[in-house]
Amino acid sequence: MHVLCISLSLSLSHVGLWEARSSSRCFAIPPNMALCQNIGYDTMRMPNLLGHESPAEAVQQSASWLPLLARECHPDARIFLCSLFAPICLERFISPCRSLCESVRESCAPIMSCYGYPWPEILRCDQYPSDHLMCISSITNTPQASCQDCVLEEASSSKDTLEAFCRSDFGEYQQASRVYSLGSKLVILKHGPLLGGQIRSRIELWLERDASCVRNITRQHPRGGTFLVMGTVQGERLVVTKAHLWHKRDKNLTAAARKWKQYRCRN
Fold it and tell me: I need a surface site. Which of 12, 72, 91, 244 has the fewest CB within 10 A?
């Protein structure tokens, strides 16, 4: 199991955030700054847009974001982070656009949440300029991934499945096609804090946005199928933590679904 570790011990200078300060200097991007290698430019301005005073400090802080990039949560995540850790050395600071921040946050924040990290306040998107101003806009508008740990599992026993239901905010089985669209069958076993009518739209959003997770689940079933999925509700998003292929021959799953309404979860 991979562990995602992200340091959030960042500082931010709100004074003159987007203007080059008289004390700022240009430096070569250090070769050990793995986050920002081969990004299209080779010099950066310090202090950077996160308030780091030296290249060494920027290297140390940026390294903690590498596990997030390894998850391939968004194709523009590296561009967004490097615009803050290693801003290109021009006459003035060029910040990321608000839309770039929002696109990266929408796709990457669910991964961070899986490991207990919220999207940091230091990266709140409303501080960045609108797209019509001079800023770095999103190159790719299609988020690609969410929690890549989710895989299709065999149900070990009906009791284990019932306990997984207890730990989850929602549980339902659905029919999904080979193009990852929601089919006609959607049976809700547990909807948690969501209203019943919200489940379908949230599942459709999950199918659209969490492509890596969906690919993991459907890899051996390219034509689609019916799947039992469970997970947690995090804001507007569903994060799937358990998934099983649903078929009537699986006695553990059918027994768990039959018993669920009468099952008493342990606190």
Answer: 91
| Strand positions, DSSP E, 121-199 | 152-153, 170-177, 182-190
> Is-contact 36 58, C-beta < 8 A?
no
Q: What is the mean pLDDT of the chain?
A: 79
Q: What domains are defined for the chain? A: 25-127 (1.10.2000.10), 151-262 (no CATH)
Q: From CA 86, how far away is CA 44, in angstroms rounded?
A: 5
Between vectors from CA 238 to CA 237 and to CA 241, what angle results, nearest 5°?
145
Note if the bond before 47 is cis, omega within 30 degrees.
Answer: yes
Q: Which two tokens stand for residue 1?
A: 């199991």
| Interval 117-142: pLDDT, tens | 889 999 999 999 988 778 998 776 55
Provide the 10 A C-beta neighbour count for residue 19. 11
Quote the radius of gyration of the chain (alpha carbons, Å).
22
Task: List b or e across 74-104, with b for residues whose CB sees 16 or more CB atoms inside 10 angstroms.
Answer: bbbbbbbbbbbbbbbbeeebbbbbbbbbebb
Q: What are phi and psi of 201, to 5 degrees?
A: -65, -35
Q: What whole-number distance in Å separates Cα of residue 36 and Cα of residue 29?
A: 8
As a whole-number percent, the residues of the chain with pLDDT over 90 amount to: 28
If phi over 0 gives left and psi between -120 and 50 gives alpha, with beta otherwise, what is residue 38? left
What is the rounded CA–CA span in Å between residue 246 and residue 227?
5
